[in-house]
Amino acid sequence: MARSVKKGPFVDLHLVKKVQAMIASGEKRVVKTWSRRSTITPDMVGFTFAVHNGHKFIPVFVPENAVGPKLGEFSTTPSYHGHSGDRKAKVETAAPAPAAPAGAKKG
After folding, report:
1. CB 38 within 8 A of CB 19
2. pLDDT at 92 over 70
3. Alpha-carbon distance 47 to 28, whole Å?
4. Which tens digit of pLDDT belongs to each residue from 36-47?
5. Side-chain-side CA neighbours of residue 84 (13 Å)
6. pTM of the model
7. Residue 78 reports pLDDT greater than 80
8. Is the pLDDT of residue 19 over 60?
9. What pLDDT does 93 receive?
10. H-helix or E-strand containing 45?
């Protein structure tokens, strides 16, 4: 469900403060954040954010056409590849049957 229009976009307050401080000082540095839920606002255009994906920080540069989505959409989370026991079972069942000796008769 989408957020109400009258509430406006959600951005964590600590992230807004960091962006406003960088705008005021005129410096551009990478902002490290865990806030994947924050919406990208026009103030964030031109800055780079290091967004945590649950394992490491992924650098996300914000161009003009990225205004609107959440920061987490540009930093994919680690994918699940299954349990190791499942892979082992597949390898064992996929192995070919042993061949019969050349001189053996059936029956």
Report:
1. no
2. no
3. 6
4. 999 999 999 999
5. 0
6. 0.71
7. yes
8. yes
9. 66
10. none
As beta bridge partners, residue 49 has 31, 60
Structure tokens at 58: 């992924």
Question: What length does the chain have?
Answer: 107
Q: State percent of the chain over pLDDT 70.
A: 79
b or e along 50-82 (b: 16 or more beta carbons within 10 Å of the residue's beta carbon)? ebbeeeeebebebeeeeeeebbbebbeeeeeee
- C-beta of residue 10 within 8 angstroms of C-beta of residue 3: yes
Sign, CA torsion 47/5/10/69: negative
Kindly report the number of other CB atoms within 10 A of residue 96's CB atom: 5
Per-residue pLDDT tens over the stretch 53-65: 999 999 999 999 9
C-alpha distances in Å from residue 46, one per residue of 19, 28, 31, 40, 88:
11, 8, 12, 11, 47
The token pair at 32 is 């490290």
The answer to whether residues 71 and 38 touch, using CB atoms and an 8 Å cutoff, is: yes
